[in-house]
Prior knowledge:
The chain has helices at 7-14, 18-33, 42-51, 57-63, 74-82, 88-100, and strands spanning 3-5, 38-39, 67-68, 104-106, 119-121. The chain has 128 residues and is of the alpha/beta class. The chain has a single domain (3-125), classed as 5'-nuclease (Rossmann fold, 3-Layer(aba) Sandwich), CATH 3.40.50. The chain has a 5-stranded parallel beta sheet.
Amino acid sequence: MKLFLDTDMLLDVLLDRREFFFDSARILDWAQSHPGQCAVSWHGLANIHYLSKNGAEEFIRDLLQFCVVPAAGTHEMSRALDMGLADLEDALQVSAALLFGARILVTRNLGDYRKAPIKAMHPRDLKL
C-alpha cells in the first residue's frame, strides 16, 4: 500500500506532540519496515527543518532511508495551483502524493483535503 505522509504527522513525531505522537509514530514504524512504500514532499521536508528547533537534519536523513521524495516540477506546481484547495501548501502535498502514486494521504487535517482527488485518512484510523 503506497502512502503519502503529510508534514503534520511527521512533526508530531519530531516535536513529540504527545496527543498525536503514538498514532503518527505507528505509521512511521510501518514505513520503516516497508521501504519505498511511503513518500514525503520536498517542500514538506523544508518546512520540517524550518519549524524544528534543532534543524531536524538527523530526522530527515532517517526518513530518507525508507521514504521516497517524488521529484516534482513545473507540471506538479501547475496542478497544485489548479486544484482548487484553499491552501496551496496542501495542494502541493496532494500533487506530490499523486506523482508518487499514493493511495492514501495520511494527515490529521482531514478537512483541508476534502476536495482532494486522493483519499485522506487520519493516522489513528489507518489499519496497516
